[in-house]
Amino acid sequence: MNRIFVYGTLMTGMDNYHLIQPFVRSCAPAVMRNAMLYDLTYGYPALVLAKGPCQVYGEIMELADIDRALAVLDRLEDYFGEGCQDNLYDRLVCEVYELSGRARDAYVYVWSRPGELATVGRPVESGCWRSFKQG
After folding, report:
1. Catalytic residue positions, numbered
2. 67 secondary structure, DSSP code
3. Interval 92-129: pLDDT, tens
4. Which among 7, 54, 77, 118 could bridge 58 via Cys, Cβ 3.0 to 4.6 Å?
5. What is the pTM of this model?
6. Which residues pair with 47 in a beta bridge?
7. Domain containing 65 — which CATH number?
């Protein structure tokens, strides 16, 4: 698989897009259902899996050289490997939806410490980091 769903600083035009840009083959708006977005006190967002009618807006990107791209992203997201207690984010394969409604599997960095959200985060009700940052 060579797709990733980004929802925060890695989206086009955002602060960390330059890290992923060399690998991007294509990019399209997308949404992840059953997920919530949080603004962390650290200045970046967190996505957590949730139940109910909530969703997170972002972009689905097809990447070239996926292994190199994931190495760059894993460093950014403090992902050290599956099940590692030091992970800040876990890299999961999740179903996301293009605006056409087509479901696609993509890698998603999911916040690994949901129990801390009450002290380090607040919900982004719109589910959209870009509009939250511009508002």
Report:
1. 77
2. H
3. 999 999 999 999 999 999 999 988 988 999 999 999 99
4. 7
5. 0.96
6. 37
7. 3.10.490.10
